[in-house]
Amino acid sequence: MKERDNLLEKYSSRVFKNRRTHITQLEGDSDTIAANTRAIPGILTARGCCYAGCKGVVVGPIKDAVTITHGPIGCAFYSWGTRRNKAKPSYKGEQNFIPYSFCTDMRPTDIVFGGEKKLEQGIDEIMEMFNPKCIFICSTCPIGLIGDDVQAVARRVEKKYGITAVGFSCEGYKGVSQSAGHHIANNGLMRQIIGSGDIKPKGKYSVNILGEYNIGGDGWEQERILKKIGYEVVSVFTGDGSYETIKNAHLADLNLVMCHRSINYVAQMMKTKYGIDWLKVNFIGIGATCKSLRMMAEYFNDPKLTKRTEEVIAEELEAISDDVEHYKSMLKGKTAGIFVGGSRSHHYQALLRDFGVETIIAGYEFAHRDDYEGRDIIPSIKPDADSKNIEEITVSPDEELYRERYSAEQIEQLKEKGVELDTYDGMFPDMKKGYIVVDDYNVFETDELIKTMKPDIFFSGIKDKYAIQKSGVVSRQMHSYDYSGPYAGFNGAVIFGRDVAMSIYTNAWALITPPWKSTPILEGTVGGEK
Amino acid sequence: MLDMTPKEIIEKRHITINPCKTCEPVGAMFCALGVESCMPHSHGSQGCCSYHRTVLSRHFKEPAMASSSSFTEGSSVFGGRSNLNTSAKNIFDLYDPDIIAIHTTCLSETIGDDVGSYISDMEIPDGKTVLYASTPSYEGSHIQGFSNMMIGFMKYMTKNTDKKSGKIAIFPGWVNPGDDGELKRIAELMGVDYTYFPDHEGILETPMTGKYKYFPKGAGTSAKDIQELGAVKKLIALGQLTSVESAQYMEKQHKVPFTLLPSPIGVSLTDKYVMALRDISKQEIPQSLEYERGRLVDLMLDSHAYTYNKTAAIYGDPDVVYGFTSLCIEMGITPKYVITGTPKEDFVRQIKALFEEHGMDTEKSVIKADTDLFYLHQLIKNESVDILIGSSYGKQIAKAEDIPIVRMGFPVLDRYGDTIQATVGYAGGIRYVEKITNVLMDRQDADSSDEDFDVVM
Predict the structure, then answer these.
(1) Cβ contacts (< 8 Å) between B13 and chain A: which residues?
(2) Which of A123, A475, B327, B451 is 20 to 30 A from A32 via CA?
(3) A103, B15: Cβ pair inside 8 Å?
(4) Sequence-separated (6 or more) residues with CB below 8 Å from residue B19
């Protein structure tokens, strides 16, 4: 495969050996890829750290909890208001700490003598000023090294104030990427929060949306559609989510999983502990949204619900069809590259396809092999030293609350009907032969692939955005949506189409080459003047 | 917005809420980006590098290339030597800079990695340089990291010499590329031959050409210029807290006398810079520069009715806050809250001295270092101001309390075109007098009843 080989041959033999397993040019059924292994130092990986995955992605968006960054100031500063996990109080008086950043702001003496005392004093002040129901403590690099015990602090806080407090040992160096932080966050939520509430859903069919961070309001668009059909959304993990609702998540009927990478642990554990099935949905894309809604209806197997689902789909499609056709006419035939975290590079291919755009390069920052190849290969993944360091918790069926929704046979039947229950097939099956997939992409590879594959538009993050744009390729941020959105659901699809068309057709692209580059200086006289 | 913030203030808090500073390494990364063909390298977990590149890109709206040692749990236990060696090999192989400028992080500092000895044992290709600065994130703030990195460059690269060149050195402190252009322009107008370090013009401000280069040629302070810093006859160091240590280093190590000046923001602080340049070139101030100054003063007088006796909250990094405090005083605005997150008490002394120079009462204002924006918000809740001047994070307070805001300093995350224009110099003064006056006038318009609403103002 030409493009992959051309790229790899530019590497030294040492780097070549590593990277060739992480770059695949798809051939068909037997494609594999290496993932979730250490990034090569100095290669300019796009990856962040464990803290970013725990605090930044999973824990931070829980609006009614105070999330404290325990460490020096930097990490608290960088994770303050920088992901667009939108949130608003769900009722008058609900606490919303999303605009805040809390930090122990450790100094040299704290590093030398330990920071637990300062952390506890800080929590006393937080209790005095805000009196939250829940406190999360997220550790940054030095904490584990100096031996501060954030779990012990959390236990003392719980005892002293009668609130919930969770300590997360999500030091930046743990694991190989943000992914370790997701796992650590999942464990904490499972251990201490999920299952601690007792408010039962009122609706006939209730769901949790897992792995939806409400970037640009995506979660709100999903809730709008689900409520319109008649579903009750018990909780969202974790965009615009709350401690108060996540407590009751175990009482819902079904878990919908958006971002498989960051939340599959909770989905799996809730299945084991409470018997709640999880359904891999994708509300990014018009076709994908319809498919997800139909799978849900199939799962609940109620003719009324199915009818209502079809009504809503028809109504929604009707409302957006003119706009979609308009943007499709502007975008059809374009090609795209997409490098994002651990789910979007797959999800957005569906939406791009709705507009006639093919994704010819796709990559993940921190995915595991199952995100590419599907969960079937999980038993064959050998854990390495780095992943072994991340705690794997085991749960068993809850004596009171475990309830099997469907028997194993029924689940198999549903799966045969195309309901993607308790499974995920990954990104590969949705991509075509010859397309390139890159795991843990870096600046060099992004640059090279843009040159050889020549996509019309590239979706990535802020670190890549301006380099790509300066090289003359349309570049949009897929983590922040360039401060637009939502892109999910039906209304989101139109906004996405509008934004992509805007970026491709914006007038300034035509101005890059100055006229003097193509027009020679005129010499001689004009109009016979002397 | 910020609905949870109580009015009652806890004076000695142990928890920092909504910081007004960040950590040393990002300052080191920013500094190193201002050197020609230099890759800043973060010796720590990947997240540090990712966060720093992100905030720099969001501020400058430009790529910020930098690499990481990608520590794992293993390297945190056994040390980061092999990660650093691998990094250097890969960076030179793939990205081919002339210099790798390493800075440490709280992780590599806490485990006591001896980066200096790692470098001396390292195989470095001919003609390439690897150097480092220690930037423990739990000390100081980002401006300290900037300063430490400058000294790191000089320690490794600047040669000791008794032969003095005719040149001077200018250390701009932490400024935007637009400021670099302006400070150099003024130096050129004043006829001085200078070395400028670091220089982000042409690196964090590049034109759209359809071609992207990792290291734009001819942009940034050259290795040769850093090597020859020891030979300059004099140093003008701007930014009293950002540049003091690098200036002292030049004096101690290379016997270069220095003049330490505030960031030249507004009329009188720019005057100081111009006068310092005149002392070197012994040249009269060019008519064009005097004309610019006159235009700025003219603008201040024209608009004074809308600014006089207004109150401001100024927050951010010490040097830029000092500059804006001075500019506000020139405009007749009372700096009511003057705040930095950087833990340097000299800041308080400097601001108080500035107040006293202008015969102003320091007791009527809150001047505080090592504090946060939560505290500033609480102060405002108790007694409001007419305008906020500082980084983008203040816009939360601006929205919560319905106060106009003018953005300046670092980071400005929600404006385009800001960093390619000057804040310093008379030109920067004109830009900011206009900005400040405009928001105050807009506020007056918005607040006035129909019968009091003036088309002409």
Answers:
(1) 122, 125
(2) A475
(3) yes
(4) A73, A76, A77, A80, A101, A103, A105, B341, B372, B373
The amino acid occupying position B429 is G
Q: Consecutive sets of 10 residues in chain B, 457 residues long: mean pLDDT of each?
A: 97 96 98 98 98 98 98 94 98 98 98 98 97 98 98 98 93 98 98 98 96 96 98 98 98 97 98 98 97 98 98 98 98 98 98 98 98 98 98 98 98 98 98 98 98 97
Cα dist from A442 to A41, A151, A451, A479, B248, whole Å: 11, 35, 14, 16, 40
What's this model's pTM, rounded to 2 decimal places?
Answer: 0.98
Task: State yes or no: is A259 an active-site residue.
Answer: no
CA B11 distance to own-chain centroid: 28
Could you say which of B15, B83, B209 has the minimum Cβ distance to residue A126?
B15
Best residue of A15, A105, A384 to probe chain B, by most B CBs closer than 10 Å: A105
Strand A102-103 to B16-17 pairing: antiparallel
| B 78-97: CB under 8 A from A | 83-84, 86-91, 93-95
- Residues B39, B61, A97, CA angle at the centre, nearest 5°? 105
Nearest CA among A318, A360, A314, A371 for reference residue A336: A360
A4-15 as b/e: b if 16+ CB within 10 A? beebbeebeeeb
Question: Is there a contact between B16 and A73 if contact means CB atoms under 8 Å apart?
Answer: yes
Does A153 contact chain B (CB < 8 Å)? Answer: no
CA distance B150 to B146: 6
Which ipTM score applies to this complex? 0.98
Give residues 384 to 443 of B whose Cβ lies within 8 Å of A.
Answer: 393, 396
Closest C-alpha among B114, B93, B89, B104 to residue B42? B104
How far does the CA of residue B220 sit from the closest CA of chain A (Å)? 18
* Residue where the block lists tokens 């470095």: B124
Which of 454-473 (A) contact B at CB < 8 A?
461-472
